[in-house]
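Following up on my earlier thread - several people asked me to post the actual chain instead of describing it. Fair enough. Here it is, all 1045 residues.
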Amino acid sequence: MNRKVFYTILGMTILCGLVFFRSGNSLAANQTGIVTASSLNVRTGAGTSYDILQYNNANVLLAKEDKVTILEKLSGWYQVSFVKDNTTLTGFVSSNYIAIEQASTAVPAPTVTPASTSEPTITYRYETSYQPVSVGAKVLKKSKLYKANGKSVYKVGRKKMSLAKGKKIKVIGEKTLKGKKWFHVSFTYKKKKRKAYLQNKYVKLTAGKGIYAQIFNVKKAANIRKKKGTGSAYKKVGGKKVSIAKKAAVTIVSDVAVKSTRWYKLRFNYKGKTYTGYSNAKYVKLAKKPVTKKVAVVAMSDAQFEQAMKNEGFPESYKQSLRALHSAYPYWQFKAYKTGVTEESKTGVNLISNARAKAWKSTEKDAYDASTGKWKVFDGSTWVAASKAAVAYFMDPRNYLNDRSIYMFELLEYQSQYQTKSGVNTILSNTPFYNKKFSYTDVNTGAAKTMYYVTAFMEAAKISKASPYHLASRVKQEVVTSATTTSTAVTGTVSSYPGIYNFYNIGATSSANPIANGLKWAKSGSTYQRPWNTPEKSILGGAQYLGEKYINAGQNTMYLQRFNVKSNGTYSIYTHQYMTNISGAASEAASTADAYQSLGIAAHAKTFVIPVFNNMPSESNTITLGIRGNKKGVANSDVNIRKGPATSYDAVVVLPKNQAVTVTEVSNTDIEYGVRWLSNPYWYKVSFVKDGKKYTGYVSAAYVNLKGEYTIAKAGRLKLPTTLKTSERVYYLSDNPAIATVDDAGNVRGIGAGTVTIHGFTAAGKSSVSTINVLAKSIHATGIKLNKTTLNLKNGTKEKLKATVTPNNTTDGNVTWKSSNKKIAKVTSRGNVYAKSVGECTVTATTANGKKVTCKVKVVPGTATIKATNNGYNSIKLTWNKLGDVTGYWIYRKTPGSKYKTIAKVSGTTVSYKDKNLVTGKKYYYKIKGYKKVGKTTYKGSKSKASKAYPKPAKVKITSIKSTAKGAKLYWKKVAGASGYVIYRSESKTGKYTKIKEIKKQTKISYNSTGLLKGKTYYYKVMAYRNMSGIYVYGKYSTVKQIRK
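Reply from S.P.:
Thanks for posting it. Predicted structure:
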């Protein structure tokens, strides 16, 4: 249903109370305790969910060996008193960290050891699960069995199956095919469980204590009869037919037949009382029974919470905020709902007050009249279309993961154990309903009665399964206008609808008179206890409507009622939304936070279901419109410069009107959500010089007129440059469409003479601006120049061309860029040239009136990176990164004191080369250069940086080490080109190795190491060398081998 008002709703949740159990173990009066921890928090209650005790605006801490007087023992906690700064304080501390001081006695006192564990403070929540359908039944006559389509016969092997008369079965579900009801049944055949379908007319249910079911297969409601059969009279209460709404729960008491038609005797709740009656079985469906159970909630450790977030699938961008909430409220639980959808954007579906900031209001043609400068009103007298940027911002759940806004994600189901009359009364305080009664007529007896409003809301919660806090708060925000007055929706005095009440404003659709629309709906129809001609019927019946249509239909948080993103819900996505106010859920969440704090229940266990969208944009993204860097502007009024982006910050200095400023940053205000936030969301960080002194601070964007960065003429066009840190959708907005409009791609079109500011927003609310001057007449360009007329680029690189158009105030200054061959070089709308492949092309820059200038672009192969490594005593291996788009490579070599010479030419697919027949120990330097042949032209890249290496013997590989009678014998593989080997030994793998033998023969590849001690471990490594005319060139050490004697 659409709504035109901001309303703040308190009860949005399963509200679980914090429960404490007193141990009953009292200590002797005035026992003394001694603190055993190095530092111990004193809390205001017996549990870590309570705040730390404050004294002189500081947390109260006890130090090790401080003494306290124990007043009472609770579950794992002591209530204690102690003296601080000559003042006696009282609070609660964990008994784990308090030792009882023993009385003096001649006998040594036993040591008091604090309990290693304590009974934890327990809090609970209530979980609802659903029992599968499983109803006992028997077959009335021999019946064939079918598959799910109701056509194909069910077989076991080749045998067509049927069930004999009297066969006991289980009904596990049902379906309707072409108007006929079929039971899904489970039965045993040849000692195996089987499942098949048969028509319900051949089955009699065994009701026992009753079978859970729901009204089904009707448009709105099913009429109930006094007795079985269509000839029976309808059941009436208070002279009116009893009808039960579609999907309402009923209990099947018995299953009877009227000829070949099955009828159910039902037990049901009607207007707060229990009745029985009959219905044709086709209007009743066996359903999964909801079962609510009490579940203890234990505060998770940080590690457990991290795992829980991972299991739920929360993106990284959610986690930091959720960690902060978990730290402050350890009993809260967070569930992710993966919507599988993207944002909503349709003009008129999302509304905002016309009094709010321009940035939040749409200037699209269906929402704004550029000729008058006024926004189209969609509801009442002030509600206009929200901008796409506003929709994106208010839909992004990450903007609300704080302790004031999180309540828009809280579940709204009824929790009778903790949602009490006193809580409802707290919500109704300062309203005409507080501790007040209303009069009504009992529909059953016709007697005049009275009822307290608080009682009505509790009764409404019972029948609707919706939180009474939510119901009371919704009524409070919908119809209360002051502490003593309400809107005419609940006075019964509207002349067109006398005696009609609509406490929830249901049906009050957007129009000039939404209250009349709501009262019309409340008077018409017979469902939900309509007509609502008493406050009781309106409160109870309206709650039934809200419970059935929203809370129990999957839209069970305020966020989902505002933005229905449940792609698998009862209603289509972005339909069936309770309000059109774009900020409604946020406003209600803020009010809820205040109310929970005042009730003292903010820290109690709660469950929050938070949507997660596909492809969510980065919160850390940045955006710049127009020219990069600082922007210039002028103050349009005397205004305070503040230390931060909100009026709550201290003033730095007064910025005088007409003062020039430099804008260094566009910032969001950081005040808490509220009217000021909505009215003044964007601020500039500015610097300026006043009286010879430089000042820096923040000022609302509304007080600075930015200087134009671009100039276009009426009907002129400009593609506004937009720079993002990471690519995502940008939401553009013109602050005056009468001067210039902007489309979703950032294309600006001049409409009338003047200055206009274009805003660009990310979904997370980051923004930038660019100001454009629109001239009444064109000033044509007379020329255009580039900073370069030729450009040489390596393949894969880029360079920016800069165009200068004369005169500088031309309206033809919007330059378009074009490449003659995009496969060789691509040019962007901002003149960035990207080299794509080797070759030549021309880039042309053109003004709006056709003036052109060109730049010749030549793309050559890129530069490879070469690496030279030893490949044996007379060889070096070269490797390099493969370049794209080359025909081949030239390889160059030199030795110290010589010049580089070409030693090889290899194909463009080759990435390695072995240089052989080299001198052991001599240094060699290598470079490489890529080239490409195009026709008769060869395009050459640049030589790489040098890489050096020298040939040396290869690394020795020890094959084995064996124990001998006197020591150990090593074996290794022969190394090509080696003159001999050196053997080293150590008694520690990482310790010092001692040379124990030099073998001066290449072919000797073993060594017997002697003199080893039994019980010790020895470590060996071997290195090859080559003797180059008396100069030894060594290879690398082998891998260490060990042996224990």
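Residues 532 and 538 are 5 Å apart (CA to CA). That should answer part of your original question.
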